[in-house]
Amino acid sequence: RDSRILITIGACATAGGIQALRNSRDHDALRASVYPSPQFIDALATSTPIADHVTVDFELRGCPIDKGQLLEAITALLKGRKPGIPDYSQCTECKLAGTACVMVTKGVPCLGPVTQGGCGNLCPQVGRGCYGCFGPKENANTEALVGELAALGADRRTIRDLFGGFTAGAPAFAAERERHDG
Description:
Elements: E1 7-9, H1 11-15, H2 27-34, E2 58-60, H3 67-79, H4 90-97, H5 102-106, H6 142-151, H7 156-162, H8 171-179
Parallel strand pairs: 1-2
Helix pairs in contact: 7-8
């Protein structure tokens, strides 16, 4: 109420974090499968982004967030301007860094085409597919990516699990995860 600007920081704040995987499961059964004495665990049944509860002015995504983006946001706010944070996909970061596309060259499943850039190309530069830690980019075409993943041989479970990482609670990723559950 007293803040003029609210910025959420990290995947937990912007998308509910990895714990958002519980949102589509039976809370009590899940708790019992994880903890030896579940009766002593008091936890919320769901994990939701802060933006589901209050108006958020700006999101710094990622797990972990990018230090450069944090400094850019602070500097921009001090100077009275909008932070210049990437709005392109992870694929653009790979191309800018000269990293070969792991989906094309190795057939490795990758969320890069639908993930907001900003992580510094961490996973693809070591030959792994992007895990989507920065969440879906705006207007992410997850359906088209799923078609490509299936063409590479990814089954329903692999696709479901791919969309179930750090930003599983982000609507675009949650929808794909639910479509492939079962």
